[in-house]
């Protein structure tokens, strides 16, 4: 029996639709998903079908795109500082330090990083583990990798790193992990590449837990700072006083480029005694009463590897100093 032309066309369309439905990558849920799946499968041997199923279950979240467009670091220093330098945040840091003192002291010795800076980073990041994020990490990284062109290459790298992490470096199944709108996890808010490169199993239980193991959390933060070149017992910042002729090249650079004595020649005097040959940079921040000038050194630069904002690094520095002072005061009162 002959087939009517319309029926023949309908059959062809049905065959095409069934073929597409059975192809893992033909109807990828997200733009760029097929290529990423091929790369991860090639590099790790994971099943493309399983990877596609995982990514198909992730959804683009407009609230994530909204959040990344208004970061706190866009505020001036006079408005940014009060977010983190509160009595509650300082007292919380002192209490956290005292609670984990033996562990912190051991980790500080092991990694060569002063304990107050480990505590301060956790204080700024998550208020000592109280606010670790409510977004699905997979949703966050899929949204930013595939739907946020300004930083898509960075977040695609993070999504790939997440998909390639072994189960021993994850707090649970990939599609259950919660974190920040940027896909950072745990008390220290580690991105997937940082988990891969710097997270450590400090309690030696065979897995890295950045949510519930204080040893793993604190040691991972210390290892991150150490791995980026932290200098033990070295300064982080020093206040600078400009004179009437002050002018500086490379203002607000993060990498220390000039010896301190060069800035003095340009009219910026340190308000404490420091090695004149120490490499420094100079930051100008908008304080509550006008411009503030700060010399920043290698350790400040290291903190900006955690978050590239100089406001973030300054908040960590000042919170660390306040915590150390609070601990010393509590010790003296005993």
TrEMBL record:
Active site positions: 125
SUPFAM superfamilies assigned: Lysozyme-like
Keyword Signal: yes
Pfam families: SLT_2
UniProt keyword terms in alphabetical order: Signal
Manganese as UniProt keyword: no
Signal sequence residues: 1-28
GO BP: any one term: peptidoglycan catabolic process
MF annotations from Gene Ontology: peptidoglycan lytic transglycosylase activity
Limits of the Transglycosylase SLT domain: 34-321
Name this polypeptide is given: Lytic murein transglycosylase B
Phylogenetic placement of the source organism: Bacteria, Pseudomonadati, Pseudomonadota, Gammaproteobacteria, Lysobacterales
